[in-house]
Specification:
By secondary structure, the chain is mainly alpha-helical. The chain has a domain of 90 residues. Helix content is 68%, strand content 0%. It has 5 helices and no strands. The radius of gyration is 19 Å and the shape is elongated.
Length: 155
């Protein structure tokens, strides 16, 4: 069961970490290399090259490889380190990251809603922290699946 959980978490991390790589060249208006200030509300320029990232071609293969394997490598390196220090540190660390990512998603979401103005940096921060929060929430749910299976038996 434990091996299946680890494999499932690795596949989940792999699927979630691929989504940023798929976000390039996805302009809803089919524009290519749309210059600043952009012709639609989705203008995003994370690399400061004065071109909308949604209208640019894909990033390099190295970036895609790093985006794919870095979260998985980070998780397993941390898992090995905590294996030596104890399970409590493992649980504490990931629950803390889960709390911080939720807090970041909540505050950036509230700020975007209340002020009704968005910047590319704030949108990116909200998007990235949302992905991290969802991934960690699913990992948290899978780790505590036993509790949810026992719940109907209590009634």
């Amino acid at each position: 069961m434990r091996k299946l959980l680890i494999i499932g978490l690795a596949v989940l991390a792999l699927l979630v970490s691929v989504t940023p790589a798929l976000a390039w060249l996805d302009c809803p208006y089919a524009r290519v290399n749309d210059p600043y200030p952009g012709s639609c509300f989705r203008y995003l320029d994370t690399n400061q090259d004065q071109l909308c990232d949604h209208s640019q071609a894909e990033r390099s293969a190295l970036y895609q490889t790093l985006a794919l394997f870095l979260p998985i490598a980070f998780y397993f390196i941390h898992w090995v380190v905590v294996k030596k220090t104890g399970k409590r540190a493992f649980i504490y660390f990931w629950n803390l990251i889960l709390l911080l990512s939720f807090t970041l998603v909540a505050f950036t979401g509230l700020y975007l809603f209340i002020t009704n103005q968005s910047t590319s940096v704030l949108n990116y921060l909200h998007y990235l922290s949302g992905i991290i929060f969802i991934e960690l929430a699913l990992i948290h749910f899978l780790r505590h699946l036993v509790y949810y299976k026992r719940l109907p038996k209590l009634n």
